[in-house]
Amino acid sequence: MKISYNWLKWYIPEIPDRDMIWDIFTYHLCEVEGIEKIGEGVTSDTIFDINILPNRAHDLLSHQGIARELASFLDIPYVDPTPKYKIPESKPTNLQIKVESDKCRRYTARIVRDVKVGSSPEWVVNHLTSIGERSINNMVDLANIVMYDCGQPIHVFDLDKVKGILIIREAKEGEEITTLDNKKVKLKTSDLVIADEDNVLAIAGVKGGKIAEVDENTKNIIIEVANFDPVSVRKTGRGAGIFTDALKRFENDLSPELCDFAMLEMSALLVEYGCIDFENIIDVYPEKQKERKLSFSINKMSKMLGIEIKDEQVVDILKRYNFKYEKTLSADGHYPLVGGEQYEIIIPPLRLDLQIEEDIAEEIGRIVGYDKVISKIPKIDFQPKINETYKKILWARNKLLSDGYSEVMTYTFCDKGEVQVLESAFDKKFLRTNLKDGLKESIKLNQVNLPLLDTKEIKIFEIGTVFKKDKEEIYVAYGNKKEIKEISLEKFCEYNSSQLSLVKRGENAGNLIPLDKGDKGGLFNMWSLYPFIVRDIAVWVPESEGKENLEKLLKENITELCIKGPELFDSFTKKGKTSYGFRLIFQSYDRTLTDIEINEIITKITNKIKENSNWQVR
Amino acid sequence: MNEEIKKGSQHPLSILANQAYQVFSDLNFEVIFGPELETEWYNFDALNMSKYHPARDMQDTFWIKDKPGNVLRTHTTNVTARAVEEAHKQGHMPYACISVGKVFRNEATDATHEMQFFQIDGAMVGEDISIADLKGVLTYFYKKVLGDDVDIEFRPSFFPFTEPSIEVHAKFKGKWLEMMGAGMLHPNVLRNLGLDPKKYQGFAFGGGLDRIAMIKWNIPEVRLFYQGDLRLNQF
């Protein structure tokens, strides 16, 4: 979610600088995915792209939410706009709302007459564009402003396009709606909609419809501020393939209590636009959100976090965060001793994430800061058992490595098999029934690269899971280009069981030390993705001279394009002369080498060799 | 032939997995294994991810055809869940376990995302295991695997299976990098595994092994691990 620094400043005039905000977000609240400076001079702003996770999506997907959080964290004033929102006395209304499904938890609506639809004032356009939103018209923009400001989605209907009463119900078989962006959506009977007597006007909490759209001719509007069941909104959105900012908020579950403020704010902003003709608010709220209380003990906080949490610290947090709280007595009527203090708090309505004592531990942990947690190595009274599967894998791997096989890992997905996945982002939908097919591909690939590898023959293995109709099992496959053997890990170890002692047995699994611990250290060298060229040079050298001078000459002349070699691959002696065969491999990191340029290098080298009359190029 | 057979080379992820097992075994963690094709219960529900929880959005899951309620595991926390449940049944409390295994995500692949990768997952449960223990264990692990000059820090996060939840970052060669998710096991998870959350508490952590390998050895692409190319085996 994009958050504007200037917007936050409205509510917390004492907001610290941007770097400090980044710090608070990162270490005490949420991940900052991006930070961007926009505009110039007085209109310049900083936009934070923050990642609010589902547990705080109830109360933090808004500027006010973030501002309240920062104000409490820093113990600086939060300017509540409520007192300055004054609405002219409203008139009686004929608006009728019928809620027919419990998927609608609250529906508040009011008619505002004689509105003038047009473009938005500058501050509205600036606010919206700063967080990457587009201005549409002043009515729609206000609804959006309120959502990004307090977190509550709002919808506006053109009153004169609505026939009779508003009904909140599930869609009927075969019903359709054309959404504001001109998409035709077939509705399912589980989808919640807002309808009038004739038509579906909106998909509840997801998207508005074309029929009652506010346009430049709109005179009178209905403001909808409602609360819908999160699962229903989520399913409907998924089914219709629609994702909106409103949906994102509803599917994460909003408090129905938020409706009041949102209606007030929307109305107050309309007053700023010059609207005066407000009708009474209709409020259908069958089951009011209950007040919830939560108890916790300081002991438990300290025990979970592994830091000594002090009573004063907790009281300070409860005060800064405006929790109503009470210190509770223990069963014998006394306050518990230091460390054993208990508190009961009244959970603020928007804080749907606070459910259990552990949630308070998280609240205290993140506010205090996890940097206060001092590391300690736990000593527990527990003797681990040796894991048989691990022992076998380790043994099989060591055995194959010592027999000269190298390890590969290939893909679990393939073209055919006995077990299939439903939806896949890939063309391969089956799970492998063997490792062999993967190894064959691997051998083919490595065979091509054989000159580059430090081995004479490709011998590889894989230990991995294969999937048969009714069970998965770990298999071992190993082989070369002629033959690949494949057998279950179980059987592989059974056949070789006499050698199981290769693995040292100790008291715990940690003593199952792999024969080859691997990790020679150093960093990875990425290979070139371009083809390589192999050239062999064989030269007759006097037997007494040895190969050193020739090797030196080669090294001096092969250029940086030679990535491997000179490597002696062949030598034999005849009549006082020894033939040395050296292999040179050329490859570039940035292009495909041509025969012509390699020939030039080779020609240069052979010419140099010819300068020595004791040497003859074969 | 008299020539001695030249030893084969090991896959980097095996080297790293063995190191991880070794480090955690030193701290008395039990090495555990579990199924790659898993029930919805152990992959999601037992871990406090209800059917329509928005957190399931974070997991792009491969569902198994003709086997309703079965998935390719999206994390190895399923193995941890099974092991903690079993250990408690057997009366082995306190308990600590560590697993490394292949996991699957149904998402588009790129240089840092793969449909299959390895995850390292562990937990410690007892009567007074805390976030301080978690910090101690993970600091020890990252120092052993990435070097003594590595620092770690905890940042607030959210996972359905832990409360409090944190994200673990490690400072490697001067840069803070996101390494894994962790936290204190959610009481619902403990309850689902048959443990009384009033009596027991514990930490859990999990993250990509491939990612650690990429950071440790400076390997540029996650996809290199599964090409079957022997040029990968440099260590």
Architecture overview:
- The complex is a heterodimer of chains A (618) and B (235).
- Chain A has 618 residues and is α+β, with helices and mostly antiparallel strands.
- Chain A folds into five domains: 2-80, 2-Layer Sandwich (Phenylalanyl-tRNA Synthetase, Chain B, domain 1); 97-284, 3-Layer(bba) Sandwich (Phenylalanyl-tRNA Synthetase, Chain B, domain 3), CATH 3.50.40; 293-368, Phenylalanyl-tRNA Synthetase, Chain B, domain 1 (2-Layer Sandwich); 388-511, 2-Layer Sandwich (BirA Bifunctional Protein, domain 2); 533-617, 2-Layer Sandwich (Alpha-Beta Plaits).
- Chain A contains 16 helices and 29 strands.
- The longest helix of chain A is centred in the C-terminal third of the chain and has 16 residues, at 595-610.
- Chain A starts with a strand and ends with a strand.
- In chain B, 27% of the residues lie in helices and 29% in strands.
- In chain B, strands 1-4-5-9-8-7-6 form a seven-stranded mixed β-sheet, sandwiched between helices.
- Chain B has 235 residues and is α+β, with helices and mostly antiparallel strands.
- Chain B contains six helices and nine strands.
- Chain B has one domain (12-228): Bira Bifunctional Protein, Domain 2 (BirA Bifunctional Protein, domain 2, 2-Layer Sandwich).
- The mean pLDDT of chain B is 93.
- Chain B starts with 11 loop residues before the first helix and ends in an 18-residue tail after the last helix.
- The chains are: A alpha+beta (618), B alpha+beta (235).
- Chains A and B meet through α2, α6, α9, α11 and α12 of A and α1, β1, β4, β5 and α4 of B.
Summarize the structure.
The complex is a heterodimer of chains A (618) and B (235). Chain A is of the alpha+beta class.
